[in-house]
Amino acid sequence: MISVLFVCLGNICRSPMAEAVLRHKIVQKRLDDKVKVDSAGTGDWHIGKLPHEGTRKLLDSWRISYEGVSARQVNSQDFTDFDYVIAMDDSNVENLRSLPGGEGVDIIKFMDLLPDEILREVPDPYFTGNFDEVYRLIDLGCEVLLDRIVKEKL
C-alpha cells in the first residue's frame, strides 16, 4: 500500500482538501486498494476538528466526501509511515524538517507538482478566503501526483 500525507499549518483548510480530493481521484481510478491518504498540520490548534466550513462547502459543491477527515498534528512517526510527505508551503517544509526524523526526509512542496503555475506556495484560504483558487491548484496537483505515484510505485 502506497501512502501519502498532505501537511499544512492547521490541518483544516488545504491539507484536508487535498486529502479528500486525492481520495476521490483514487476511488475514481479504482486504486483505493493500492493508495491511502491522510493529512496533518504542523500546528496543534485544531486537533480533532472537521475541515474548515469553506473547505467543506467547496468539497460538497464538487460532491467530494470528507468523511472521516479530522485535524491532527504531524509527528515523527509519519516520516516512516508515509511514502510521500507533501507540504503546502515553505514554512511547513521548514517545520517538518525541524521535527525529529525530518532532517533527511524527502519532502515534496505541493506546488513543485505544478511547475507552470506562477504561485510557488498553495495560498492559505484560512487567511485569504479564496477556497476556489486553492481547490483549482489542489485538483491539478493531485492529478499530477496520482500519475506520478502510478508511474513510480504501481
UniProtKB/TrEMBL annotation:
Keyword Signal recorded: no
Catalytic reaction list: O-phospho-L-tyrosyl-[protein] + H2O = L-tyrosyl-[protein] + phosphate
Keyword field contains Hydrolase: yes
Keywords of this entry: Hydrolase, Protein phosphatase
Pfam families referenced in this protein's UniProt entry, alphabetically: LMWPc
Broadest EC class assigned to this enzyme: hydrolase
Domain Phosphotyrosine protein phosphatase I, chain residue ranges per copy: 2-148
Entry EC no(s): 3.1.3.48
GO molecular function: protein tyrosine phosphatase activity
Active-site annotation: C8 (nucleophile), R14, D124 (proton donor)
Family, as annotated: Belongs to the low molecular weight phosphotyrosine protein phosphatase family.
Name the record gives this protein: protein-tyrosine-phosphatase
